[in-house]
Sequence to fold (467 residues):
Amino acid sequence: MKEQLLRLIYTIVPKERVLTDLAELYSYSFDASFGGYLPEIVIQPKNKVEVADLVKLANEFKIPVYPRGAATSLSGGSLAVEGGMILDMSQFEKKLVIDRENLLAISSPSVITSDIQQKAEEVGLFYPPDPSSSHVSTIGGNLLENSSGPKGLKYGTTKEYVIGLEVVTPTGEIIRTGGRTVKNVTGYDLTRLIVGSEGTLGIVTEAILRLIPKPLARKTLLASFVRIADSGHAITKILSNGILPSAMELMDNACIRAVENYSPAGLPIEAEAIVIIEVDGHPAAIDEEIKKCEDICLLQGATSVKVAKTDAERDEIWKARKMVSPAITQMGPTKISEDATVPRSQIPEMIEKLYQIREKYQLNLVVFGHAGDGNLHPNIITDKRNIEEMKRVEDAVSEIFEAAIELGGTLSGEHGIGILKSPYMELELGSDGLLMMKKIKDAWDPNSILNPGKIFPQPGKLKVELT
Ligand SMILES: Cc1cc2nc3c(=O)[nH]c(=O)nc-3n(C[C@H](O)[C@H](O)[C@H](O)COP(=O)(O)OP(=O)(O)OC[C@H]3O[C@@H](n4cnc5c(N)ncnc54)[C@H](O)[C@@H]3O)c2cc1C
Fold:
């Protein structure tokens, strides 16, 4: 990093919040995805003025800037792929105000998502987006990845709950989008454009989030199926019968076995699949709904259905689902985690295709995910030192995306595009669709300094490269 630039950075942010030591830079060279990229400098801004001044400086010197939350991205969102400056937004001043009267939360980007959920619940309100990483990821990262989780089925994704933002633009202006009103149709909806833009259109410095009343009660069941196809049919039957559970999660046999090896939860290891279903709402309504779900599962071939009678039993069921990620990492050192998503009715077909891909490439591929909204997580457990196997993984990943798109689906249900899925963007959007997105990016960021290398494919790169 040029001496002159460093001196100017120190006029904006004190030295103790500027990291240039190689060991410190290494700890910022990776996220929860794949690959390592060393930044030249890491800066920990505390307020919007510091962020704006740093972005202006970066424009002057044409230095790439990568906003970064807790670095739990599974698509390489905050990696410094072209060197340059990481802005560690997790150290931003923490502000969280719950406005109970207006059912709002006003939050700075550095707040941990579960803190918002907890503070809202303390006053009888509810912030539904629930990524499994909610105890570590920041709300800033959630907004920019448009995260969600099991509750996405009934309550939608993060974008449904963001009504206003404060943003530092890629040229260093501080703007506000949306506001505090539930209804706001003034001009273009820049809030929606920025949510999910993966840090390529602006740096979020404050968010106004919509809260809803906390559901009064919930009921959970666990159904086991000898045939995974039957579980897919049960899911689609429940939804077409007018029941909208708050969550419907699927785990295939490999996941069940991995969990039982890692932290035994009494799951049926012979089952090809288990489905966890949760309904929430008024106590009288949910009793009837869970009964209907139970009946449909049995009709569709479930070998057993267990409805949790106590909070402890419910927690036990959810613990099994939450154990999947740590359990499968015991199967190998490298985990390639995908989130190809298909229309709900295509879930059985997609599962079938995933198993064909597993056979064809002879890989350790497990399937779990938010089957109720079509968002499956095929995970390939491998070892990045095995170059021959990694080549097969690359081809398998390409086929997973092709299959999802053929079935009317999408590259990503919640993890974003980042660097890992950018080669496939044209496959889903077509060249004109992708070009329109690129025009927006170029208009916002004329010097192409904000989170370069993300979302848009490198010319000629038609598939993911993991070796
Ligand atoms: C074990 C595990 C489970 C997970 N489960 C889920 C899940 O269930 N659902 C789900 O959706 N995701 C999940 N994820 C992925 C990840 O947690 C989410 O994408 C999360 O939203 C990232 O938040 P973060 O704070 O770590 O952001 P980072 O990973 O640091 O950044 C994510 C993106 O946001 C940008 N960014 C961050 N902060 C800002 C800001 N203030 N302004 C502008 N851009 C910013 C970055 O540049 C990057 O593009 C999981 C990850 C792990 C490791």
In short: Residues 387-406 form the longest helix (20 residues).
